[in-house]
Amino acid sequence: MMVAQAGHAPAMAAIHAASFPPPERWGVDAMALQLGQPGAFGLIDPAGGFLLARVAADEAEILTVAVAPEARRKGLARALLEAAAGTAASRGARRLFLEVATTNAAARALYAGCGFAEIGRRPRYYPGGGDALVLARDIGVPA
Q: Is 111 a catalytic residue?
């Protein structure tokens, strides 16, 4: 696993395209733009997964995480999430947030296994009108 740079944007977009339906896919420009935002960071694994996140003050948010279909069920997403939690905590974040589709049972199970708990719901959050659950997990050590 390594820190993602703008040069990784094409690989990240390809993994995202293989992992999400067309209306939810992020292209190369979106990946590069996110990596360039203040507080943002990305992690990429040559085995076929990546994660984008950002830190603002003492909170962090997973923007997207994707694992290529052929690389799934090998612990890659869990490793990316744990590495992101460590990176965010090292940047001062105390809590890590993300959204997940209510219909994505596999991702919901993964997040629950990584210590995330539901704290809210966003109705009609996704392009197709699906709802998202807002999940959070405490990270870091309180001051």
A: yes
Q: Which member of 59, 61, 70, 111 is catalytic?
A: 111
* Structural domains for the chain: 2-138 (3.40.630.30)
- Measured distance CA(108)–CA(26) in Å, rounded: 21
Q: Which amino acid is at 77?
A: A
Active site residue 118: no
* pLDDT digit string (tens) for the chain, length 143 residues: 899 999 999 999 999 999 988 888 899 999 999 999 999 999 999 999 999 999 999 999 999 999 999 999 999 999 999 999 999 999 999 999 999 999 989 999 999 999 999 999 999 888 778 899 999 999 976 55
Chain Cα centroid distance, residue 119:
17
Distances (CA, A) of 12 to 5, 52, 114: 10, 10, 23
Cα-trace Rg, the chain: 14
